Amino acid sequence: MTLQLSKSDILGIRSRLAIKGQAFIYGRFVDAASGETFDNISPRDGQVIAKVAACDTVDVDIAVKAARKAFEAGVWRDRSPKERKKVLQRFAALFEKHMDELAVLETLDMGKPITESRTIDVNVVLDTLQWYAECPDKLYDEIAPTGPNQLATITREPVGVVGAVVPWNFPMLMASWKLAPALAMGNSVILKPAEQSPLTAIRMAELAAEAGIPDGVFNVVPGFGPTAGKAMGLHMDIDCLAFTGSGEVGKLFLQYAGQSNMKRVFLECGGKSPNIILDDVPELRVAAERAATAICFNQGEVCVAPSRLILSERIHDQFLEIVVDTAKSIRPGDPLDPETKLGALVEDGHRSRVEGYIAKGQEEGARLVLGGNRPETGLGGYYVNPTIFADVKNSMTIAREEIFGPVLSAITVKDDEEAVRVANDTSYGLAAAVWTRDLSRAHKISRKLRAGSVWVNCYDHGDVTVPFGGFKQSGNGRDKSLHALDKYTELKTTWIEL
To answer: If we measure between CA atoms, which residue out of 50, 55, 61 comes closest to residue 30?
Structure first.
């Protein structure tokens, strides 16, 4: 395992990959019950890299029965916290051993630059697995302050069978944020990865089994949203469902819960995050360069992407000039090349969607100052150049809807009050940032911003110790930190008359 991979290292790992596309249910690889598969296409070059099991209602039901059987048997739930901790530590250690392989697989599967996969994604997953592995024997239950003739205990119990549906932009990372706390608390898990990027989820299930996670406790069912995803939402024996993805699909899961067993549903449904640059911004060049690199990170396929650049009119021209110059240097290229800073969009249909938003921005009167076109990479994959619009009004489509691409909208404001008003004028509330030298100003604005995360003089910082989630239509519940455990446990009160 190395922190930096050379091009020859990467190609060597690619040649040795044994890609598996089957479902993983009750501790073994299985085909879809129908025998159907779908092509897994690499956005890097548009080539098929695997045939993946097209799981549907039947397969989900088989996985749920396996998970329920394991839960009721207590093979994981009833293990002591110390024993669960040791198994999860082995899982983390095996993941660490295979991080180079998993990074290459992730890049091949969804198009992100290998340097990001290797220096960010797998390291975040490892931190998450290690951190939650330490939780089981560190958590204490409570005794209520009753009178002398009663004893009331408040205990956490696993919720049961957990369904997790994760997106294609950070396949491993989002999966770990859900499965690690769910497993730590003794639940059984069924993971449905996005059909665009299922390969690392399947590999992680194999490593979990090797680490000693009992059969049926961690299952993976690849498939499509309208079939496998819907089946999970409607299943009468899934106790809890955690979803990260679009608001449109998140609302469907809320409906499915009401139509079935009223399973608890936790959602993280994207954002249209404001990046507020005030007139006293510290290190203007640093902030401008960060604004450009942050919108291009992971091809802009990031739920917290700072897609609305809210600029004080006093510094607008100077700041935007640096943003544009920086973005010009970020050229799309081969995701498997360690020098590449901007990879491929996940699929051709999504590239067309992003290009549709670019066209819409021009139609509605925004001024295109950079990009808007496809680069010549010679690879045949799905690439778009960094794109920047100026003279954007917050009422425009490109300022209101989540584009999920390297597209930045610059909006000019006169003062702090207008900056906050524009920032909050959205149906989303996932993240925001404010740049200022004035600590008092930063505190006041941060309190007014309706977002689950607010960064001051930085962007997208944090670790597993802090919760992640949104306000408004960005969802409910929280990933990461001890707060994530609330999603996967029930609180039981036991009242004893003495």
So the answer is: 55
Q: From the CB of residue 478, how many other CB atoms can be counted at a distance below 10 Å?
A: 21
Say which residue the tokens 């079935």 belong to: 260
User: How far is CA 199 from each of CA 126, 171, 225, 335, rounded to the nearest angstrom?
Assistant: 17, 9, 16, 17
DSSP structure string for 180-214: HHHHHTT-EEEEE--TTS-HHHHHHHHHHHHHTPP
- Sheet hosting strand 218-220, strand order edge to edge: 28-30, 23-25, 218-220, 188-192, 161-165, 240-244, 264-268
3-state secondary structure 338-356: CCCCECCCCCHHHHHHHHH
Start-to-end CA span in the chain (Å): 58
pTM of the predicted model as reported, rounded to 2 decimal places: 0.96
Please check whether the two domains, 7-269+475-497 and 274-463, share a CATH topology: no
How would residue 65 be classed by pLDDT, with cut points 50, 70 and 90? very high
What is the secondary structure of 359-375 as a DSSP string? HHHHHTT-EEEE--S--
Domain locations in the chain as residue ranges = 7-269+475-497, 274-463
Catalytic residues: 268, 303
pLDDT digits (tens, 9 = 90+) for 374-432: 999 999 999 999 999 999 999 999 999 999 999 999 999 999 999 999 999 999 999 99
Superfamily of domain 274-463: Aldehyde Dehydrogenase; Chain A, domain 2 (3.40.309.10)
CATH dotted code for 7-269+475-497: 3.40.605.10
Give the rounded distance of the alpha carbon of 120 from its chain centre: 13
User: Both tokens of residue 364?
Assistant: 């509605």
Cβ(252)–Cβ(80) below 8 Å: no
CA geometry: angle 487, 430, 272, nearest 5 deg = 145
Q: Which two tokens stand for residue 374?
A: 């496809």
